[in-house]
Give the backbone structure.
Amino acid sequence: MTSTETNLDATRAYYDEFSKGYERHRRPNDDRGYHAMLDDLEVDLVERYGRSADVLECGCGTGLILERIARFAKSAKGIDLSPGMLELAQQRGLDVCEGSVTDLPFDDATFDVSCSFKVLAHVPEIGRALREMARVTRPGGVILAEFYNPVSFRGLAKTLGPAGKISAQGTKESAVYTRFDPPWVLPRILPPGTKVETIRGVRIVTPAAAFWKVPGLRTALRWAETALADTRAAYLAGFYVAVIRKS
């Protein structure tokens, strides 16, 4: 078994386990909380480029974001490595299938927008993943690719602090490969025929998710995160979404 296959198996097993408590962890019914803020900033960007368009989400998980995309897109499809996650997405009636972002099961130039959130950071073959997303995107279309940023409050916390338990069975995030890519390395990993138009910052001023449990502070953080998302402060965000145009 190759190292790539080993990593895929480990990631699939991790997310199959995580799926059992994933939505409880995300609190999808809390429209004011930390995870809601992350989702809102990501979905808003997809809508900016993908309204009335054909959209693919790579790593759709249980479909929390894809379900929202389907409300404004012409078509919305999703792939995920984890059957456990996909089972919940299918229960939502979403058009999803099992697959890897490094080997997408779609023809060339099928979508106007391909997007991926909180997924590419767990892909060792990042260049191959971006090439696949570009391949299935139509000329003139957009790839929305989210990365983890080491130059941020979150990056510092991940470097200095221990990995937390984030599944019901105690599986640690450190069990899965994770990469951090600062914005200035993107030109080195992008496929030919693509270029970054801009980036959107997600989680710029939030030191830790726990701060969102304070009602007054939560309101201020949401305002600040939204106001700063499309400014140069995005280069200091814990997550950032690169808007990549295919020529």
User: Anything to note?
Assistant: DSSP finds nine helices and seven strands in the chain.
